[in-house]
Amino acid sequence: MAYSLTTINLTSAFLILVFGWALGTILANILRKILKGIQASTTLERHLKLKLKLEHTLPNTLKYLILTLILVLALTRIGIPYTYLTWAAAFVIIATLLFILLSFKDWIPNLLAWRHLSRTQRIKSGDAITIKGVEGRVVEVGLIETKIQTSNNETIFVPNILLKKTLKQ
Question: Residues 164, 141: contact at Cβ < 8 Å?
């Protein structure tokens, strides 16, 4: 029995997807077990004070990277030109970078303001402060925002950039 070239290409593309998905899942599970075994997240949190769930993030990233590569292989197998896939990938990468940059637009100025506040020691935990008519005590100066406890026992979070601008006046 003779099969057409289209049938062979579709079948092989399907098999590439199935085996690629299995490979991505297996490798992600292996990486997840390794990261759990060495307690990567707790070590990172203990030493760098970063709360990242590496046991979840890194394996999923690996899996989706493998799936993306497998998808490209399968699509080229069924005849979609590689240049089209390159343009699509470039579009996705540029869109992703734009979304990342837009998500950091408030984060970066607050981080720079925190650095300035830390270096100048203008405020620290326990200081009494008045911001925009609100009085309270500084509980914690974080990377992005400062936690303030008001006299009526409310906790407010003030962005560091606002705090820096207010203290300059």
Answer: no
